[in-house]
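quick one before i forget lol
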Amino acid sequence: MTSAFSGFEAPPPTREEDLSAMMRTYKPRTPGVRHLKRPINDHLWKGRAHLPLTYPRKGHGIGGRNNSGRIMVRHRGGGHKRRIRVVDFTRMEAGKHKVERIEHDPGRSAHIALLTNEATQDKSYIVAAEGMRAGDVVQSYRRGIPQDLLKSMGGIMDPAMIAAKTAWRGNCLPLHMIPPGALVYNIGLRPGMHGQLCRSAGTFGQLVGSSDTNRQSADDTQRQKKSIYVNIKLQSGEVRKIHRLACATIGVASNANYNRRQLGKAGRSRWLGIRPTVRGVAMNACDHPHGGGRGKSKGNVIPISVWGRTPVSNFLHLRRSDPACREPANFRRPKAATKLERSPTSTRPWWCLVSVTKGGDDGINREADRDVDRI
C-alpha cells in the first residue's frame, strides 16, 4: 500500500467562500453609485494582461456589423477600448502548469488564469475555476495518463485511484476519466475538439453516468455502441449525450456572483458597448408591428418581434395552457391542411384555426373549417 501511494501529491486546497457576503456596495455619494453592486474579487491581478497573448479589438465588427457593414446584432456599439485575450480551450499540452495569477477578461464574464508550463516556461490563458488562486498547479490528461503517475500507483489500473489523483479542480480530463457526479465546465462536444459548453461565469454541468447504464440492450454491438457516450446534465435540466473522449475541466466556472451585479446607471452599459433598446410600442407603425396607435397599446395581438416572428417560449406556453386549444377526444384529425384562415365569428387563437381539404368517399373534395390543435 505504501508503494501504491508513493509520490502522491495533495490536491489544491478547498476554499469556502460566503456567497451572501460577496457583493460590494457603496455609499450613495452620487446617484450613479446608489444602486451599484459588484462582486468582491480582491484576488484579481491589478496590472495589465500578458501582451503576447492579446490582440486589439478593432474594426466595424464592434458595432455588430458583418463584413459588408450591415447590422447583424442590434444594440451594440461604442464602449471602452479592449484587447482580445487568446484563451486555450483545447488544453492538449500535458505536464504541470502553475497558475501565475487570476485576471479579469473584458471579453467574457468568467475570470481567466495565466498558466506557466513548468517544463517549457510557455504561458497560456485558460478559463479559471471557482476557487482557483495563484500558486495552484493544474494539469491536462487529454494525451493519456503520464508514466510517473502509473509508477506511483504500483502498476494498478484502479479507476477510483486514478480519479483520486487526477480529478482535481482545474484539471482537464477526458469524460471517461471523470467520476460520476463530478461538476465540470468547459465541456467539449467531439473528440479532439475544444471546450464549448459551460464557459460563462458560474456555469457547470454534472456527469450523471454513461448512456449504457440507463437502458441495457440485448445486442452486444448496440451495447458497445452506446457505451462510448456519457450523459452530462446541464443547469437548465437538459441532459446531453457526449462522446466519452471529449474533454472537460473539473470544477465550476469562476465569478459565480456575476449574475447578481447591478450596473447602477445607464452609462456603465455604454462603457460595456451596450446601446439602448427601444420598446416596440414606442415606435411608429412603420418600424415595428407594435408601433403606432394612440397611447401605449400594441393592440390585441400576440407579442412578436420586429421581424414579425412569435417568441417560441410564449407561443408554446399559450398553446399548451389554453383550454380552448385542446383537441376533443372524439375529434378525427384531417388528412391534409392547405391554408391557414380565421373565421370571423371564432374567438380562438389563430394557431388553432386551419382550413382543411378532405376527400369524401365519392371522390369529391369538400372544404371543412375545423378548429385543430396543431401539435
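fyi The chain has five helices and 19 strands.
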